[in-house]
Amino acid sequence: MKVLAVDTSTSAATAALMEDDRLISEYILNISRAHSQKIMGIIQELIDKSGIKPADIDLYACSAGPGSFTGLRIGASIIKAMAQTFNKPVVAVPTLDALAFNLYNCAGNVCPMLDAQRGTVYSSLYSWQDGSLVKSDDLGVILIEDLIQLVKDKAVPTTFLGDGAIIFKEELKRGLESCYVAPAGILLPRAASCARMALEMYDKGSFDTYNSFRLTYIRRSQAEVEYEKNNKIDIQSMGPEDIDQVTEIEKLCFASPWSRESFESEILQNNLARYIVAKVKGKVVAYGGMWIVLDEAHITNIAVHPSYRERKIGERLVKEMLRKAKESKAERITLEVRVSNIAARKLYEKLGFKDSGIRKGYYSDTGEDAIIMWDELS
Fold it and tell me: Is 212 found in the same domain as 289?
């Protein structure tokens, strides 16, 4: 079986072609992280010089993480595209497993460690038993000082490898009486190890299609963390201080908007009204309102600022109003929606609402009909 494997999880871009137990060719380039510019050239050179056509490859493999978020995505996108083109299976090889495989049949423990930034590493502990690589500790993301203490407590000779071993080499030397770091040729991920492990995994039935292949990040990228922090949505009750912003959203969303006075009346005078707002960094980006009369709730308004649509904010508002309605002992809830508002109708149907009638010419701005929708809350 012919397998093409790539690993772009670290600063090294590497690809390999293997047929069963024979390594046909391997290419390692450890100059910079410009993988998007180099990995396709590396794969093309492997294919050209080996004389093997892409369609002849039986299995595609990729280092699946952890590691550099950007690097992993580059390698995965290429392997998935090739597997889709030739309709071949894909194996997602855990990066740390493949890295540990570099030290075949090593005595003692093997500790691959990849930089996770801010004094932490992605790491696990392995040992070789009867020619098989066995994971003894799945550490995930760990502070370097905690990893050093763990290795010290085990009192077993340990060999380190990975870019974390380069970055924290001095800390390892200071913290451990005996510190072994793998030599340069096997210190970083090798696609040959990835390919060999892929063949073993495939034989055990562990493989994917191009569509089901998934990377293993362990934790979110810093960009994702920052995005969530800057876009965190808070749902809270509407107060008088929110009315100006709500009125502006109303004007942006509707041809016949409610006035500021209408919202003041709802918030300050109508004991039946329940209004909520969604805020991002203190700014109102959406709102919703309803009346609760005895055992029935009626949604009066929902609007999301145009700049904040397609983030499921409207769905969160409706879910919160359903929760509040149940909390207020309402047994059913109703609303009207324009016939033409397909997106809103699909959302309400998703949340359990059903069509129950039509109000002819309900909307005064266009004369459009309204669909009446109900949901039983009990």
Answer: no
